[in-house]
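Model: Ready when you are.
Researcher: Fold this.
Model:
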Amino acid sequence: MQGIEHATWIIYLLTFLLLVPVFYFIRKAEKSKLFVRKIPGIEAIEETITKSVEAGRPISFTSGLCGIGPTLYACLGVLFYIAKRAATFKAKLLVPQNDPEVLAITEDTVHRAYRLVKRESFFDQKNIPFLSTEQFAFAAGYIGLVQRENVGGAFLFGEFAAESLILAEAGQQIGAHQVGATVSPEQVAFFIVTCDYTLIGEEIFAASAYLSNDPIQIGSLYAQDFAKYLLVAMILTGVILATIQSINPDLITFDFKSFWNLL
């Protein structure tokens, strides 16, 4: 695929058309609260925290194999909310890591959450351990951590691969209330059968926007939906026009092949 540096004027036009709604909805979200539909998995986040606190058991959160990128930022939005609630209830929050760079960002996010609710003295850096950069070594470390600590609520938000079922089963074995969310389509089925609630695909971005109530995230979420509608409309329009042209070439003389080459 051509990079943006080799894009034609039509690509620049489409990019502009997709960026305009982003700025529009962000500005609109800053002025007034935009509606975000409730999702059962998002509502379950508060339920999981409450059940863990009532049972006097720790809470765990892992972003899996997430590197620095959009998915991680969405996970951090959810983590920030969970950390604030955990700090408010003085509950122990464990956030095991497998990436040194993500570790630093995560540590700062949790620390800010504790500071925001004036519980900074309860923040413990040891509760954000670095386990391993190796996939299954990280999974083994996670299993040992959640089972030793007898975690009551486990959040698996992020990118996961073959270790997803191992992580989810570790929490299920100790009776932890679990909420899973992943953008990895292959792993969704494993979370559905092992977690109490599962957020599928882009719902993880909706969760971050809903919990943080951040105008930038909410505006971006609205803009993404607008872009999807626009692209679907363009595809359907193209299919209809191409079909009409194939049935009656004299009715529409537009050269679709030449237009496609311009892209």
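Researcher: Now this one.
Model:
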Amino acid sequence: MEFISTREELRARYGEASSRARLKELQKLDGHCRGFLAKSPFVLIGSQDSSGRGDVTPKGDRPGFTIALDDHTLAIPDRPGNNRLDTWENLIENPSVGLLFLIPGMDETLRVEGIGRLTFDDSLRARCAAEGKLPTAVLVVEVRSAFMHCAKAFMRSELWKPETWPDRAKLPTLGQILKDQIGFEQSAAETDQQLVEIYRQSMW
């Protein structure tokens, strides 16, 4: 199997990007970007460590949880999690991040690229509070580019069409998956019940 190794080979296969695809990239957030962020309850954060090992982590909250501090700066609260900290450890070595914001039912997405840093600043944490609780920390992103991504991926996948979704009852639970992967002594049902309780106690 041969792999593409140069930009020239890549462009020979794909051709050049259209003028619209090039021109739509902004160097700051405009009104449409801000409007999208105000309605988005979900973002995927892509990062890499210094060796190039990548990670993508989801962050979700009520619509508008990501705050545009100004035209060049975003604040994303970090709610309680499992403390793996893959993304945050990556940012210490390599602060470049790629963000993909989604709005349920909307096939277009907002892509943002920039420099991410984690802060425990009390005033910013207070601004990002939810349910009377402060986030553990806040990811501050210096925006270097932002643009809308076209709908084709969501149209092809029919992601927002419930009639295409698999029957959840026929899929394994996380407890079942973990028991098979890790070999926990406790039953899958016990793990699932523990997760329900963890979620209940530490959502915010």
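Researcher: Key takeaway?
Model: The beta strands are 42-48, 54-60, 67-70, 73-78, 96-102, 109-119, 137-149.
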